[in-house]
Amino acid sequence: MRRRPHLVLALHGTRSAAGQQVASDLVLAVATRLPGVEVHLGWADVLTPTLTETLIGVGDAVVVPGFLTAGYHVTSDLPAAIQAAGGRARLAGLIGPALVDAVADRLLAAGGPGDAVVLAAAGSKRPRSVAEVTDAARQLSELVGRPVVAGFITAARPSVTDAVAQLRALGHDRVSVASYLLAPGVFSERLYTVGADVVSDPIGVHPLVVEAVANAYAAVVAERRDVPGQAPGVGRERIA
Fold first, then answer.
1. Domain containing 144: what range?
2. Mind listing the pLDDT tens digit of every residue in the chain (240 residues)?
3. Which residue in 19, 59, 149, 223 has the fewest CB atoms around it within 10 Å?
């Protein structure tokens, strides 16, 4: 029987101990969900082992991006890391589109949507990434039955702070921030300074995250014709 490829979860990297713990817990949860598949962690930035270092050590692998949108890391850094490791690994699709329900769960646990919500994402200069957050905001609005707008912590506009202020100016007295972030870190801490009434936790090790990672891996394994080093549907765009 052919050995199943390793699964390498590629995460941004954080100096936050809580964020690193989420990463470790997520790797364990995915390994439990996929018995017989070896699951590893590769960092795209800040920490080691880097994604390239992890891939060199494991051979045949599927890289699942632990990113919510197709920003620079997904479309440029991860493919480059795969090529630097010899180009044997294949890059899976994004998990973000499957996680809006998980964001809603975290928001409800934090105190609910209030009168309106800002979906707070990391931010990117890439129009595609911004559009993906805007679409997630639309989906979240349908789930919670409140107006939801996108706000960005860096790189894109409006900022989360500005988005909160804009909603208040429209007459929404109680404004919540829903974290469209995977793990705690510097970005999640900034959300407590934007003037919102409620701030939800990052998504973390939610069952839907585990399922999304497993499904992304399974889709690549089932479709052996994927181009090495390129995610299905994720083009290598230039920075806008």
1. 100-199
2. 467 999 999 999 999 999 999 999 999 999 999 999 999 999 998 899 999 999 999 989 999 999 999 999 999 999 999 999 999 999 999 999 999 999 999 999 999 999 999 999 999 999 999 999 999 999 999 999 999 999 999 999 999 999 999 999 999 999 999 999 999 999 999 999 999 999 999 999 999 999 999 999 999 999 864 445 554 444 333 222
3. 223
Per-residue DSSP letter, 159: B
The residues near 161 (Cβ < 8 Å, ≥ 6 apart) are: 151, 193, 194, 195
Sequence-ordered strand ranges (E) for the chain: 6-11, 39-43, 61-65, 90-91, 116-121, 148-152, 175-180, 198-199
User: For residue 53, what is the enclosing H or E element?
Assistant: helix 51-58
Nearest to 79 by CA among 60, 50, 52, 56: 52
Secondary structure letter of residue 87 according to DSSP: S
- Show the tokens assigned to 203: 């998504």
Q: Are residues 132 and 177 in the same domain?
A: yes
Whole-angstrom distance, CA of residue 80 vs CA of residue 207: 30
Between CA 107 and CA 171 the distance in angstroms is 21
Q: Tell whether 143 is covered by a domain.
A: yes
Instruction: List helix spans (H) across 59-206.
Output: 72, 78-84, 100-110, 127-144, 160-169, 186-190
- Judgement on whether residues 70 and 17 belong to the same structural domain of the protein: yes
CA distance 189 to 42: 24
pTM for this structure? 0.91
Residue 41, domain member (yes or no): yes
